[in-house]
Task: structure prediction
Amino acid sequence: MIRRPSRPVRVLSSALAVGALLTTAACSDDGGEDVSQAGAVARQTSTASPTTTLTEDGARTALITAADIEDDWTQVKDSEVAGWHDSLLIGQADVDDFLTGKTDAADCQRLLDGLYTDELLGKPSGASALRGFQQGDSRLLYQVAAYERTDPQEALAWLKTLPQECDEFTVTGNGGGDRTVQVIETTLPKEGDDRVGLRVTIKGTADGEPTTLTEDVAAVRVGADAITVTAGGLDGGQQDSVDAAVKLGTQRLNDVLAGKSPAATPSEIE
Result:
């Protein structure tokens, strides 16, 4: 691995962009007519603010269904999802792989631990709900959660640094075997107030045979709430399904927060 210093995080505030648009609109015409029209455009293009606090029932209603991600995904029982903890994620990040030693190693360890415990954005401070799907040897886990007493934006900003800080590192497993972890950035549909996509690849051995676990990861913030998606397995990543979950799942969450029933997906209507 080629070591290089981490680069600063660049977090773009959507509120700043909207504020700039409104300022431009106010200066465009002192007669009033164009100002009101530009303001209407700004209101239409900005993200609608949630009007309802997310409840446990609301979180469950905002969960996606198999129809939302299509393909051959089938929903599994909640009791089965509780046991979805891949042993390849268990291990200790090697401090020697990082220029800043323990600091970067701790960030990469936090990623592995978050994927293993299903708390990638930290422990929810409010309502939360999980749903799992399976397709062959691949799994997809979808979570909706409230973080009103914590800061989901801080967690998203941290995730955005990982393709640089944790681009490639070594993990030593409990049995002493080493694994190579790679983290790259992926592109997500432009949903929610902010978002980040990652692909995490872990190469090691299982039963004495070379094994590669690939997880496509997405986190999308909607106000103080967020959705997280992880999908993949030993057969590779599932980026298309993650994109579908992000697009339709964010719409479902926005509907719930606005006090509306989520719209049926096209496949449900057909």
User: Anything to note?
Assistant: The beta strands are 74-75, 92-93, 128-135, 138-146, 168-172, 178-186, 194-206, 209-222, 225-233. Residues 239-257 form the longest helix (19 residues).
